[in-house]
Amino acid sequence: MALGGLRKLVDKISSMVIVDKKAVDEIISELQRILLSSDVDVEMVFKLSQDIRKEASKPPQGITMKEHIIKLLYDKITDILGGERQSINLDRQKILLVGLFGSGKTSTAAKLANFYKKRGLRPLLAPCDVHRPAAFEQLKQLSKEVGCDFVDKKSTNVVDILDVALKEFPKHDVLIVDTAGRSALDNELINEIKHVRDIVKPNEIYLVIPADIGQSAKKQASEFKKSLDITGVIVTKTDSTAKAGGALSACNETGAKIKFITIGERIKDIEIYDPKRFVSRLLGFGDLQSLLEKAKENVDEKSAEKIMSGRFTIDDFISQLESVRSMGPMEKILDMMGLRGIKIPKDKLADQEKKMKRWKYIKDSMTKEERLKPDMINYLRVKRIASGSGTSEREVRDLIKNYTQTKKMMKKLKPGSFKRGVNIPGFGKFKMR
Ligand SMILES: Nc1nc2c(ncn2[C@@H]2O[C@H](COP(=O)(O)OP(=O)(O)O)[C@@H](O)[C@H]2O)c(=O)[nH]1
Ligand SMILES: [Mg+2]
Which residues surround ligand 2, an ion (CB under 5 A)? Predict the structure, then answer.
């Protein structure tokens, strides 16, 4: 998939030492190449580039330029691919699938049946493609695979089939009606679908669109939307084409709601379309969004800034270590900082957890003055703090040593200094791989 290039781009950004204007230009032209090769509309790409360029110039306080630009990419791409996830009907319902030849209606019918079955609903598949002789057998075979009921009525008249289907529906939860396609949306097809629609009275009419038509999906989605009251779109074959970005962004542009995507030929290869999740995966971050959101909640930005500047107190130090810790795996945070490939041994992480607890006790036993000016903590004070906090003098000295080292390191820190390795307070020194 052409959008697959996004992952490389994010890796590239992560490994950049400085993200300056020149780097931003480079990032944008690479992004343009990726989106255009995925058949995203040129104007859309142009507008997105402009937006990123404009917003890149003003990163919000407290986050690094790198984070800012990755988040921008993430947000903008998510926007053109659909933004917020659409709600999915999980109630008792009747679904009508419409679309052109070969768009994936019949296989999607089976995938949907499987999807609902997995959620505890009883699906019923109805074969209403009366034009293709093989369509009946195809759906019958698929329903066996799913292990769901099938309307076993062969006829050239949809009325006969739907008659049986609606009689059987009370014993089921989800009726899924497969229909015939055409090579284009002509009046004949519209009338035929309307005929079926009036008999079935479906809760959902899903238009099935193959991703391989790229941005032509726009014309198709808007035509179907105009002639029939489609309630959503299912984009198929997103796994087997480089044009998925074009198809998804084009559908989204028409205002049609993309509900599901299919991602392969097996019956389980269907998923609720969630643009955020989709883009996270493309960017190779798994849960970038939740991580960034968590980071926003947890990181004490003020103390982070102070630490980066080398002017900080024991309070800032502990609070920063705490916030970093509560964010979860340290490695992810390092990834976010562009320090990819650093592996922290598990036992070190566990040690750190214990240490943090003890350090907090130590901090609480310090006077306010001591916390602000740790330099004043002499031998006698160490003794007092240790006994007050129920820790050892060695632990008190360890905390002060870590604090002092971090302070020194931060003062010396220049762009590029992460290249050779990094000393993570409380974790020790790590070499870049
Ligand atoms: N790789 C892949 N192939 C798919 C997907 N969905 C459908 N297909 C294939 O597309 C072809 C046409 O599908 P079909 O359901 O018969 O389309 P219909 O004419 O609209 O009923 C079949 O060979 C399917 O296996 C998908 O998500 N991924
Ligand atoms: Mg079919």
Answer: 105-106, 135
Which residues approach ligand 1 with their CB closer than 6 A? Answer: 99, 101-107, 181, 236-237, 239-240, 262-265, 269
Q: What are phi and psi of 349, to 5 degrees?
A: -65, -40
pTM of the model: 0.70
Cα(369) to centroid(ligand 2), Å:
77
Higher-scoring residue by pLDDT: 94, 338: 94
Residue nearest atom 22 in ligand 1 by C-alpha distance: 104
Q: State which of 107, 136, 182 you would mutate to test the pocket of ligand 1, scoring each by most atoms of that ligand within 8 A of its C-beta.
A: 107
Q: Where are the domains of the chain?
A: 2-84, 93-273, 299-431
Rounded CA-CA distance 210/174 in Å is 23
Closest CA to 334 of 279, 291, 296: 291
pLDDT digits 0-9 by tens, 53-111: 999 988 887 777 888 898 899 999 999 999 889 999 999 999 999 999 999 999 999 99
Which ranges in 202-274 belong to alpha helices (H)?
217-227, 244-254
Q: Which CATH architecture has domain 93-273?
A: 3-Layer(aba) Sandwich (3.40)
